[in-house]
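hey can u check if this looks right to u? its 377 residues, i copy pasted from the old doc so theres a chance i mangled smth
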Amino acid sequence: MRLVRTLAVAAVVLVLCALAGGWYLYRDLAGSVGTSHALGDNAPKSVGGDTNILLMGLDSRKDQNGDDLPPEVLDKLHAGSSDIGGYNTNTLILLHVPADGSRAKAFSVPRDDLVDIAGHGQDKIKKAYGLEKARTEEKLAAQGVTDKGKLETAGREAGRRAEIETVRGFLGVPIDHFAEVNLAGFYHLADALDGVTVCLKKPVKDKYSGADFPAGKQTLNGQQSLAFVRQRHGLDGGDLDRTRRQQAFLASAAHKLDSVGTFTDPVRLLNLLNVAKQDLVTDKGWDLMSFIKQAKNLSGGNVEFTTLPIERFAKHRGEDVNIVDPAKIKRLVAEGISPVRSTPPSAPEGSPAPGSSKAPTAPTGPVIDGGGIPCVD
């Protein structure tokens, strides 16, 4: 569950890219998708027509109104009760779409990276949303606000704003738009696609995620897909290997969107649009039609993934965290977006803290070109 919600968001973005010829469907979608003012009118913007989109996946067993997901849905998700999982953004991907139509870049941010969060000191990057949501609701409650809906709406808006600002400061680039989805959104999307094909190098079985698959290529339904991308127990790289699964799954989803007549099949297309309307939240100022025209090549899978590196593992307030080099991260993202000649990055200063261990090299993600199904561990 930690990484899958953004798969739903990213795939929905791919769906949007195919709607340029369907004005009625576009108008219906634009008027029905949940919107947010969290980005702010004065937020820094990209120049030259490029677009940076922050894809956020919530580790939440609740719907957009803060109500518990139905028990039957939780059971299918193999995700435990609605009391488990707060409002951590356990999936964060910055999608950079060039104005010239060239290959898009997607930068996966490991959820446990230790960063500065305004008003909360240093903590895991995934916590910015939940920490600020809780603090905002506590302030409003102290002022006498008791309406659950008002508290939930204000808390989520504050959480989104905090997460966006944290990621923007960490990566050092503007964020032009954002999209958010939760566990149910991924489940609904995977089923709307009538299954997604994945490939495993070896059989796996994990009681925590529910993953139980043979080796080789296989087509997974929504429940199985969630288990596939949730698994981290039994994987050598843990969360980093799970990120690679996320990327491989999205490669396959993009390939299917472009190859099986999804955009000419009214039933399948409407199912996907219903997923967007039910489970997706985007920023209020996003002109979807303009983006569709700019990024139509995404539906062909023209995306390259990179997992941003970590330096080592350590402990912070008793929790496992990833130690990162913020200057290196900013440089890598800047160079990935606008490649320039540069000298190799220097080794990070300092040595591992007592009790910490050297982190494995972050996996390089697949180039999603619609040309096959990458196999993963």
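The first strand starts at residue 34 and ends at 36.
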